[in-house]
Structures are given as C-alpha cells and as structure tokens.
Amino acid sequence: MIVKNADLNGVISDIFIKDGIITDIVAVDKRSNIVDSENVFDAENKKVVPSFFNTHTHSAMTLLRGYADDMPLNPWLSEKIWPAEAKLVPEDVYWGTKLACLEMIKTGTTFFNDMYWCIDSIIKAATEMNMRLAVSATFIDIGKDTDKLIKELDDTYERVSAIDNPNIIFTIAPHAIYTVSEKMLKYSGKFAKDHDLFIHTHLSETKKEYDDCLRDHGMKPAFYLDSFGLLTEKTMLAHSVWLDDDEIKLIADRGATVSHNPISNMKLSVGKAFDYRKMKNANVRVTLGTDGCSSNNNLNMAESMKFASILQKFAYNDPALMSAEECFKIASFNGAEAFGIKAGKIEKGYDADFLVLKSNIYDMTPGFNVYSDIVYSVGNNFVDSVFCKGKLIMEHGKIEGEDEIISHAKKISKKFIS
Amino acid sequence: MIVKNADLNGVISDIFIKDGIITDIVAVDKRSNIVDSENVFDAENKKVVPSFFNTHTHSAMTLLRGYADDMPLNPWLSEKIWPAEAKLVPEDVYWGTKLACLEMIKTGTTFFNDMYWCIDSIIKAATEMNMRLAVSATFIDIGKDTDKLIKELDDTYERVSAIDNPNIIFTIAPHAIYTVSEKMLKYSGKFAKDHDLFIHTHLSETKKEYDDCLRDHGMKPAFYLDSFGLLTEKTMLAHSVWLDDDEIKLIADRGATVSHNPISNMKLSVGKAFDYRKMKNANVRVTLGTDGCSSNNNLNMAESMKFASILQKFAYNDPALMSAEECFKIASFNGAEAFGIKAGKIEKGYDADFLVLKSNIYDMTPGFNVYSDIVYSVGNNFVDSVFCKGKLIMEHGKIEGEDEIISHAKKISKKFIS
User: Fold this and answer.
1) Which residue in chain B has the smallest CA separation from A303?
2) Interface test with B, best of A363, A381, A406 (most B CBs within 10 A)
3) Where are the domains of chain B?
4) Reported ipTM
5) Is the pTM of this model over 0.90?
6) Which of A65, A360, A363 sits opposite B403 (nearest CB)?
C-alpha cells in the first residue's frame, strides 16, 4: 500500500506501508516510479496527521445521547441512566457500539478503550468497523454474587483470548474501588498478573471517592488500588482528578497511565480540574478520553482536546499550559503508547494509523498551524480519510453502512421513551 | 415564501413568511392547499430551530486563526497579534469578514455584533453574505489624536446612517475603559445619547482592569462606564467576568446586556468564570459571543454554547446550572432581543431567522432532545439550510463563493509569514 502526495508538515511525501507498518517515507521530489495500482491512495497534497487514541469511553452509551442532561448526579443515574441501561439487550449494545465507531472514525479516532457490558457485541461491532479496540471484562459486584462474577470473568477471558484479531486487546475492568468488593479487587489483581493483562478502572473522579476511601480503608484511593496489585505499567486510570501529590508519585513509580476526560469532568461538576502540570512534572503518562455519550455527549477527540487544553489554561491561570501540539500528542502518541501500540507518529517503523485531512475547509483556513487548527478550531468535519493499521477504513468521508447504523440506533431509542 | 414540512418540536408544520416576518404557522394535518412555486422551500420533515445571534466578535480576525496561540497575553498581543493586524488593509478585512460570515452561516448564526476596523469593508462583506450585522465605529485613543478620532466618528456615522439596509445596525464602540481616554468616553456617551445608538465595549475581562480602574478613577469599572452615560438599555458589555454584586445590580438597573464569551475567557486565562447565576438572579440579560478567532479559534456558536453551559456546571459545582434549553435561548432569543430584533422564537409575528437542521447525522442520533444535541453534541456540520429575515442564505449546505473566500484568505495569510 502506498499513500502518495501526503502533506507531512509541509513536505509532500509518499508513505509506503506493509503489514500495517510504515516501511518508508519518501519526499515526492525524490520519488522513483510508483506503479499506479489499486494499492495506491492519492492524498492529493492534503495534510496527513496521526489518528487519535480514545483511552476511556463507554461506547454503546451513544444510544443515550441527550436522553438525560442537566441533573444532579444521583437522580441522573438512579432515575434515568440505570433504568434505561437495564433495557439494553446485546443486540442494542452492538448497534450502539457501531454508532460509536462511526462517530469516532469520522472524527479521526482509530482506537478506543471501552468499558461496557455485552463484550461480544462490542467486539463484533468494532471488528466490523475495522477499529482497534481494548475491550474489558467489566464488573461491579457490590450487592452481587462475587463468585458468579469470577466464573464469568474466567469464561470471558477464555473466549476473548481465542479470538484471532491482533487489533483487539483484552483488559480487566473493575469499575471502581467503591463499586467492587475487596474480594473481587484482590482476585482482579491476581488475574491481571497471571495473564499479563491491561487494567482499566475509574479512579478519583470525585472528592467523595477520596474521602470515603480514607474513611473506609484508611488509605488514599491510589494506594488502596495498589494494595491489590492493580497499579501497574498496564493500568489505565480514568479521570484521576482528586489525586494528591503522594498518589501522583505512586502512579508515576508504578508506571501507570491516566486518562483525562475534561468534558465529562466539567459537565458532571467534579469540582476540580485535572492537574496536568503536576502529572507532567511527575512524569505520569497523560492520555485523553471522551468518556461515554451520556456525560459528554459526543466522542469527538478534537473537541475533547480543546476542552483539555483550555481548561488547563483557565484553571491554572496560564495561557501557555498544554499547548496545541502537546495536547495533540496526548490524544495520539501517548494513548497508543499506553497500550503498547507503536503509533501516533508518521515515521518509518510506526504503525500506519493516520488521517488525511480535508483541504479548503473554512475551519482550517488560513492554515498556519495544523495542531492549532485541530485542537482549537475544527468541528467534526475535518477528516477526509482514515487509515487504521494500514487499512483504509474511511475513504473521502464515506463509511459503509452509515445510514443503517443511524436508523437502528433511532429504532432502539424508542424503548427508552415508552 | 413558505417553508413547508418543518419539524417544530415534533409537529410537522408549514411556516408562512412575508417581508421577513412569520405570518402564520399551520400544522400539515390542517393544511389547505399550498401552491408549489419557487417560493416554497421543502424542509422535508427536518427539525427547524431559531438561528444564533453572536453578540461579540472581531470577525476579520479569522485571518489570524492559528497564527499565535499558547502564549502569555502581553507578548501574544505585542509580538504577534498587533504587528500582524498592522499589515491588514481594507481589502483584507473584507475577505476576513467574508470568511467569518461563511463560518457563521454554516454553523447557524444570522447576526453578529462586530468590533473591528475598516467598517466599510465589514458592511460590504456582511451585505454580500446576506447577514444581519451590528457594526461599530471602534476606537482606541490612548496615545492618539482624540480630536481626529472624533471627526472620524462623526464622518463614519454620517456615512453609515445613509446606507439603506435594515439589516445593518450602527453602534459606537469605545474599545475599553483602559484604552479610551476620559475625553473620548465622555464624547461617546453624549454621541450615543444624541443619536440613540447601541454601545459596544469590553468590560471587566480581567482582574487587572478592575484593580486599575479602582486605583486610577476611584470607581469600579461598571460605575466608571456609567459615569459617562455609557451604561444604557442599548449597551452590550463583552466579557463582564470580574464584576462585583454592586456592578451587577447597576447593570441590571440600567437594563444593559452582557455578552458571555466562555472560550476566549478560558483560553486567555482570565482567572474567573462568568457568574451566570448572579446575572440571572439580578435579571441581567445574558447573551453569547464567540469573540474573535485569535482567542477562540472559531466562530461556532454551538461550540460556545457547550463551553458556556459546562463551564457553569464546573465552576459553580452544579450540574443543573444553565440547562441546554436555557443556553440555547441565551444564544438565540436573548441576543436578538438585546438588539431590538424580534427573533429567537419560531412563532407568528417573529422575524424568520431560523435553521433547517440536517437529518440522519450521527451527532444528533438517536435525537431525544434537539437542544441537548445542539448544545452538547454537534460539531460544525449540523445545519442544512439557513433563513435570515426570511431570506434563504444557505441552501443545503451551499453558500455561493465559498471556494473563492477560502482561497483569498489563504493568499492574504502569506503576508504574516514573511
């Protein structure tokens, strides 16, 4: 596969791809002959940049976009979100995940780290949409039968491990320290270690979680999680807002990664801004997530980048904090690296996960700086084509089955209204 | 003109328009015959909502989108923005304003309150793009010849008053209390009163402005402005972040309006969130502005709505504050009302300023609540067609001259790089 005439930071180049990996990049003024075949994609001098890695979402919650907003957390969850989710069947989750994939691809994302139920539906949807996926065995066991959940986890692991798709990463996802029992957290830590698994959990989203953990366990949340072996180089901690200096140091020492979810944090009034400067100074790897559609309400990483960057400037009173280019790296390279994927740069030896941007769109005009334009200016209509591990998964804005996905999602939504 | 098959909150209706005003709305199930003619636009059952009124921008700064970001305020202005602006000639401002209009129409805005130089270029651009415009004689006279500016103001007023276009409102715009002399502020107040003009100024964007005003004039900024007769029912105060309770009460008493610019405030680290709850409780009319492209970096009111709403939730720790529907009204009805325009509702007797939304787009799927979808979910690709005072100014996403505008803006930008 060759992507010819790609504008890479102003140098028009041909990108050579084999087995999903960039094998060479040659400036067109040094071009030898390219054999024009079906394996050549002409980028037509459009700008080409790395794709995005969404490190925390609940993808099928696209089905609940706009279903309930502007409510205090507890009635929002107990009166609206949970009763609606209780009506979802695996087929619904399949279509909700497809809608999520559609939205993510359209806005330049090639990987998502998902936390939701009906794992087989999620895998089927992401596979059909040709996306990379970290998919979790997700559990909440407060008030449930822990032994039954353990059996399910074992079964799920066996089933998913047998899937022959290198684009799918299996993770274990205890929902949060306040929704999972000590017994199950302990089992999770051992299970993750035995099978060398990635771990995905919510950590320190609210002050209440911090206060309750100290009161109930005599430990701060990060230390409590660590006590079960759940803080490793393969751990992704969603939110991580209410962490103190000791916890940030512990996370850095363990080599764990945080997923910043700025829109969700603001919309749900978590009461504090993620402390990027401290994370950076402590060498914690920071990545970006959209969270699910009921607390965002979209999966557009470009929009989340704008919120991330200007929330830092605002909350920490420094207009130079988290520059556009730095923010772009957080949303691309850092997210990939956290999951052991060599992507987020368009260089020889890196995976071919990248975007061909639309040209001549008003929101990237005049076009002084592509990072600034993507982080601060664009909406959701700036991506022309998307490559995921060398495969063209959106060509000139078109994704197969788009109308069918939207139509199914609308049909499913009717069950929440009645 | 008839807009048939418009989905108005779930009721498919025909909207009858004469001389720019909605004369009747009839549900299609009560439809008598419509004569199909060139004056019928078929909304094809798409949702129709009011358009947006952008109450503070510097439109031609589209030309500087992405030119300089992530810098502290003073070097950003003195080393980047001002030297670049010094290179702009009226022809550049014309194209920059056209680019701004293009972007605003595409994202559903039919009116903008502009503050920039080269007023004739701005009027020409907005007129050609069929937009409503409040255009200002803008001045900064610290270090300049005030008498010369007064003469220019008189001349500009005469010239603009003579233009026969009801879509253009002339305003007087002393830039800010810290950039305009007392002599000129006094003249402005009298001039506005003599000619019954709208007044447009920046007020209390930063704490420094508040502190300096107290120190230099022994008055808080709103009181200082009021002392010149510049706080009236026709005054639009951009930013209004650092106001204390007495100032908010004064603004309410005078019937002046504030323009909240959340993205600019956050990006430039003004250090405090606009206090919506206090404004609301004091019955101050709150409207929404994008500010210019060098501090935002776009003119998309839908994005500004999302920032406005969730910044309130975050900063004041209340997830129910500024609901989607309330935020939508701020961006539409309130902005129109502030300028004496009867719009922002789709009702008999109101001006026909409205949007036909795209149907079957992922970011409005499933589609539970149109206000939530517009405020929290959409990007910049949700508007199918735009009506401004009864005139169809964008039809199915197409605006005449789009490519030419983008090409000119790119050409002009070259002068900032050399």
Assistant:
1) B379
2) A363
3) 2-50+345-394, 52-338
4) 0.97
5) yes
6) A360
